[in-house]
Amino acid sequence: MRFPLFFFPAAVFLLGAVAASAGEPLKTGSTPNLGDTVKDNGPGALQPLSWIPGDEKDVMNMSNLLDRRTEAAIKRGLDDLKNKQQPDGAWGKAVDKNREGYTAFALIAYMINGYFPNKKQPYGETVTRGLDYLIKDSKGEHPGYIGGNMYAHGIATVALSEAWGQTEKDDEVREVLKAAVNVILNSQNSAGGWRYNPVPGADDLSVTAMQVVALGSARQAGIFVPDDVINRGVRYLNLGHQAADGGFSYMPGAGISGFARSAAACSSLMILGRHDASQVKAGLDYLRKESKKALEYTEAWSYGMYYATVAMNLASPEDFRWWYPQVRDVLLAKQLPDGSFGSPGKGHADYETATALVVLGMPYSFVPTYQR
After folding, report:
1. Which of 35, 74, 143, 240 has the most other CB atoms within 10 Å of its CB?
2. Domain segments of the chain: what residues?
3. pTM of the model
4. Distance of CA 135 to CAs 100, 156, 290, Å?
5. pLDDT truncated to tens, each residue of the chain (372 aa)?
6. Quick check: 358 and 306 in contact, CB under 8 A?
7. CA nearest 108: which of 368, 301, 367, 372?
8. d(CA 113, CA 357)
9. How many CB atoms lie within 10 A of CB 290?
10. DSSP state of 25
């Protein structure tokens, strides 16, 4: 059954890894090396103009969304992640196949809230150790491949893209980032999609959206990504659009619309600049319509809230000002005394905490990939 792999309300990475090991075994040497075909233009060379603050009044309105209780909650959450970082720099136990994904989300949580490797304390060292873990993992049996599935690899590529230009080891980060992008380029299938393993094969919208976000982030950072790869990815995502209600299905031509996957499709398409596409406009209408119900419950809740917040931030200042207070208040109610988020015994605590902190920190806009 494919649908439960995406919709089970625990961490998506774990289920993706199980599916990959069961149905699509990774073969040694199956990911070709494009070598010098992946170029770079220097860190931040393609930063979008949105990085430059626009209307001063609008910036002030965004900052007003971060009240003292939210800032305090973010601080408790970041402290919790710091306390739970493993000795090797990762988050999650060594036997967890998804720890690279948890680690990448944790790094993005720190960076979106203004803490970068070897920089601002008290979390600079924490971020550095996490980045070092991803770098080391990329140099394993399959060079450039990070983690045990393409979910983890995609979000790790985003983390590397955002860290590049912010570290004392930018040359090394650049080479690791280029290798990670190589893996994604070589894993796209003929339909334009991706799935769990770093080889062309099956596809689904969820994994594809993550790779599209990763390529968009790398492109903004200055890494060359061929237009045909982007265009095929966009075409694949659009094939999942459901004209009947405006949402997106798990696979092209199959299934029904869902909140989390529709948010993933809309945000990934907008990261590539497709804000005015009819599928995106209809998808955003679908998200607005389904938002109240989704805030109470939707399958893959944390995943859906992460992507929905990115989507609303990219859509317009009005959408974000409408959406953020709602998801913020739900998350603050979910925070536990130790600073973590979520329900004890459900999902993976570090993953739930990291995604919550990414959502809460969105008004800061320290991560260019998520900027309007």
Report:
1. 240
2. 66-370
3. 0.85
4. 10, 10, 39
5. 222 222 223 334 433 333 333 333 333 333 333 333 445 555 443 333 233 334 444 444 566 789 999 999 999 999 999 999 999 999 998 888 899 999 999 999 999 999 999 877 899 999 999 999 999 999 988 999 999 999 999 999 999 999 999 888 899 999 999 999 999 999 999 999 999 999 999 999 999 999 999 999 999 999 999 999 999 999 999 999 999 999 999 998 778 999 999 999 999 999 999 999 999 999 999 999 999 999 999 989 999 999 999 999 999 999 999 999 999 999 999 999 999 997 655 668 999 999 999 999 999 978 889 887
6. yes
7. 367
8. 8
9. 21
10. -
What would the two tokens of residue 111 be? 């960076």
Write the single-letter amino acid at 102. Answer: Y
Cβ–Cβ under 8 Å, residues 107 and 127: yes
DSSP string computed for 221-265 = HTB---HHHHHHHHHHHHHTB-TTTS-B-SBTTBS---HHHHHHH
Per-residue tokens: 25: 């075994």
